[in-house]
């Protein structure tokens, strides 16, 4: 195109700094849902609903068959792939696939990074979150959803210096999270309600995703560490490698042997030793890694500060040095022959 | 790249028919949230929550400040834009931006079509839906959400032949919607819960989107017809053109004069005369169009069957002839100098 129009358009659109980067050519892109099940409701009264003001009322019979437990995935396939398998990007709790998109302060996220490296990327929204939808039938989820106050992730995700730090606007020294108020609230806008009782549904949907897409590299964050470990245990032939970014949970200790042919990378950020919860969470993860190794599996644990990469919060894919962290993962995948 | 690897990858990924199309070069792509407001909750008990099994319980204080009413938008900017403004794609009720992505039977959707034409596309999830998140504070939405049974859209969106047609598996003759059971259930997986009381919140967020992106072409479907009309009335300088696909509601009759410099296209599908609700909905729309014309505005109404394009359901962006319908819109925009 005409560079002047491009520049004018970029300015007019307030497109962030990404506009400086070279274009990327896509062979295809799109989305789909997988998984889910039918739920039948009966015995409820029929009602009339006016869907739009000035519209025409419609008769709505709440009895009938609903779908629930499905998952959403969006793919972008580069025209010149270098990744040797699709890269599935699984978000953490209270979040959606937006985790891997543009950072809250407008920089390119990890989906952009890995697509630019030539990976076919699949960013999903887990069951009951984002474009997966959510069910209005509490009996089917085993509990109510919860959502977080603005101070909670600031103090729990190692952005601020513990309890009360949001009110004090006190960020951990050297923290790389874009914690200015505007960016932080943009991150909070990404938070979605979370059911704590839908893990089995979510795992089923992730297995359906693997069955549909085929052998893949799975990159899982936080809560999805559980799903990454367990999906690899259930489908070891469909997980070419497992990258766990600060996994919040471990796999099934009875099935460590299933992981012996799945190379695993675990990545942890900064400020863990001083945190009230993260030493225990990391400790659980490292002990599970040892059990996998004892069963002939291969697990690499990277503590980023030991690589000289400092200041990373739990949301390291959004941190200002997010590209440096992504490069650690990229190098590890390339070393295993999964990128050429 | 190496065509053999591309073909093998496409086969391995089960990428749908899109793989036959030429690649598209993106200058940038990403997402953001806009709008929303803070809501303060107080007087609720603190509790401990175990977010992941085997994890470490976290103290969750539900009192505090929440964000609600924000909206999500995802953009893809072509390297060679031909659209003279961004194209904002606003979905209908009970749905999300997925409406415009891959069709339920795996063909390219309207987002693909318009991006391939060179439009910078912005696909959004309206307030309380999809990646916009939703609030757990019913007082803030004025009502409970509702979700649809599998038979409801089949019978209400002019796919099946009226009440009972889903159970009978009776599709309207010549209908273009991919109504085989597998594809139809894939469409149902896109349905999300819907609040019928959040129109003001949604309109505020759409205005925030226009303020952020700048002068745009707005393409709005069904429920979003309301938001399209009203947003154009509130921000006539930011809506270069308004394309309303079977709008379910009209604008503010007191503000028709605000629309005099906003060209409008209204598109209606097939089977309207025989439907129980659509003659009235279309009638309301056409009468409002006449009022806009009487105030010196320009509104074109296209009934697709009169153009020889037959069989279209309310979800025409997913119909098998969705490209032909998109071409009608594309030609109209080009005729108005908005595409070169």
Give structural notes.
Chain A is globular and about 60 Å long. The two termini of chain A are 31 Å apart. In chain A, β2 (47-49) and β3 form a beta hairpin. The first copy, chain A, is built from 9 helices and 12 strands. The first copy, chain A, is an alpha/beta fold and 340 residues long. The first copy, chain A, has a single domain (27-37, 69-335), classed as Alpha/Beta hydrolase fold, catalytic domain (Rossmann fold), CATH 3.40.50. Chains A and B meet through α1, β1, β4, β7 and α3 of A and α1, β1, β4, β7 and α3 of B. β1 (24-41) of chain A pairs antiparallel with β1 (24-41) of chain B, so a sheet runs across the interface.
Number of domains of chain A: 1
Count of runs of 4 or more consecutive helical residues of chain A? 9
* Oligomer type: homodimer
The termini of chain A sit apart by 31 Å
CATH topology name of chain A, in short, is Rossmann fold
Largest interface: A-B, 107 and 107 residues
Order of helices and strands of chain A: HEEEEEHEEHHHEHEHEEHEH
Mean pLDDT across residues of chain A: 92
Uncertain stretches of 5 or more adjacent residues of chain A: 1-19
CATH superfamily label of chain A: Alpha/Beta hydrolase fold, catalytic domain
What's the helix and strand layout?
2 copies of one chain form a homodimer.
Chain A: H1 3-13, E1 24-41, E2 47-49, E3 58-60, E4 64-78, E5 87-90, H2 110-116, E6 121-125, E7 145-146, H3 151-156, H4 165-168, H5 181-188, E8 194-195, H6 199-213, E9 216-221, H7 224-234, E10 239-245, E11 264-268, H8 278-294, E12 299-303, H9 322-335
Parallel strand pairs in A: 5-6, 5-9, 9-10, 10-11, 11-12
Antiparallel strand pairs in A: 1-4, 2-3, 4-6, 7-8
């Amino acid at each position: 195109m005409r560079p002047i129009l491009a520049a004018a358009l970029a300015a007019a659109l307030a497109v962030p700094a990404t506009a400086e980067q070279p274009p990327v050519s896509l062979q295809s892109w799109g989305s789909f849902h997988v998984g889910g099940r039918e739920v039948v409701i009966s015995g409820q009264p029929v009602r009339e609903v006016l869907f739009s003001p000035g519209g025409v009322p419609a008769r709505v019979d709440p009895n009938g068959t609903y779908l629930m437990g499905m998952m959403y995935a969006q793919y972008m396939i580069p025209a010149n792939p270098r990744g040797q398998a699709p890269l599935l990007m699984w978000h953490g709790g209270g979040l959606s696939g937006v985790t891997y998109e543009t950072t809250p302060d407008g920089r390119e996220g990890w989906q952009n990074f890995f697509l630019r490296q030539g990976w076919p990327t699949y960013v999903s929204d887990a069951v009951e979150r984002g474009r997966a939808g959510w069910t209005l039938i509490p009996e089917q989820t085993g509990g109510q959803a919860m959502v977080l106050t603005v101070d909670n992730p600031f103090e729990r995700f190692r952005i601020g210096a513990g309890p009360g730090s949001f009110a004090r606007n006190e960020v951990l020294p050297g923290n790389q999270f874009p914690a200015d108020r505007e960016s932080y609230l943009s991150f909070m806008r990404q938070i979605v309600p979370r059911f704590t009782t839908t893990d089995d549904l979510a795992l089923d949907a992730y297995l359906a995703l693997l069955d549909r897409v085929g052998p893949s590299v799975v990159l899982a964050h936080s809560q999805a560490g559980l799903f990454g470990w367990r999906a690899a245990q259930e489908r070891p032939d469909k997980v070419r490698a497992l990258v766990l970014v600060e996994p919040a949970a471990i796999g099934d200790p009875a099935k460590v042997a299933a992981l012996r042919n799945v190379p695993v990378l675990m990545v942890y950020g900064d400020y863990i030793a001083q945190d009230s919860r993260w030493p225990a969470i990391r400790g659980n993860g490292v002990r599970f890694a040892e059990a996998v190794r004892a069963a002939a599996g291969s697990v690499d644990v990277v503590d980023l500060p030991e690589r000289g990469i400092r200041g990373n919060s739990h949301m390291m894919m959004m941190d200002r040095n997010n590209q440096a962290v992504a490069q650690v993962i990229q190098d590890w995948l390339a070393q295993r022959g999964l990128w050429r």
